[in-house]
Write a structure and sequence with these properties.
Structural class: mainly alpha
Mean pLDDT: 81
Helix content: 55-70%
Keywords: Plasmid
Strand order of the largest sheet: 1-2
Protein name: DUF1380 domain-containing protein
Number of domains: 2
Low-confidence stretches: none
Number of strands: 2
Largest sheet: 2 strands, antiparallel
């Protein structure tokens, strides 16, 4: 009888789930994909730790029937890495005026009375917004309208 057990998490959490689902005397074969294995496969693509963990979580959330039938091999992991990178590193094109409006709105939400009252995260957010607004003002708009393409 195949039980669906989430197989992503810490060793302790997975062990507890397996024990609860199968008991202590059930023989199991465990095949492991860990952070170093995923990072090694994604080394040439410069995967981030967050991307590695996203792939691990995806693998661990797959239905048991899927990896029993199809397996999780290197090629499958490479495809998962590619898809994860594509989702996180995609480029978008945004109307420059709209982007500037959103940046000003974000700055007003982050605003406090004085810089001394801001925490480090708020100051960092203000700096990032200021840099983006400066970039918008220094970019020459293409013919037909102001557009900003960024990654």
């Amino acid at each position: 009888m195949a039980l669906e057990v989430l197989m992503y998490g810490t060793i302790k959490a997975i062990s507890e789930r397996l024990f609860h689902a199968y008991g202590g005397d059930e023989p199991l074969a465990v095949l492991i994909w860990d952070r170093p294995a995923i990072a090694d496969i994604g080394r040439d693509d410069h995967v981030t730790d967050e991307e590695v963990l996203t792939v691990l979580e995806y693998i661990g959330s797959l239905p048991i029937s899927l990896y029993r039938d199809a397996g999780i091999n290197r090629e499958g992991v490479e495809e998962m890495i590619y898809e994860t990178i594509a989702r996180r590193r995609r480029s978008v094109t945004v109307d420059a005026g709209m982007l500037e409006s959103v940046l000003h709105l974000a700055a007003s939400v982050l605003d406090s009375n004085t810089p001394e009252d801001m925490d480090a995260e708020t100051r960092s957010g203000h700096l990032a917004i200021a840099v983006l607004v400066k970039v918008l003002h220094t970019c020459r708009p293409p013919p037909g309208g102001r557009q900003y393409s960024g990654g």
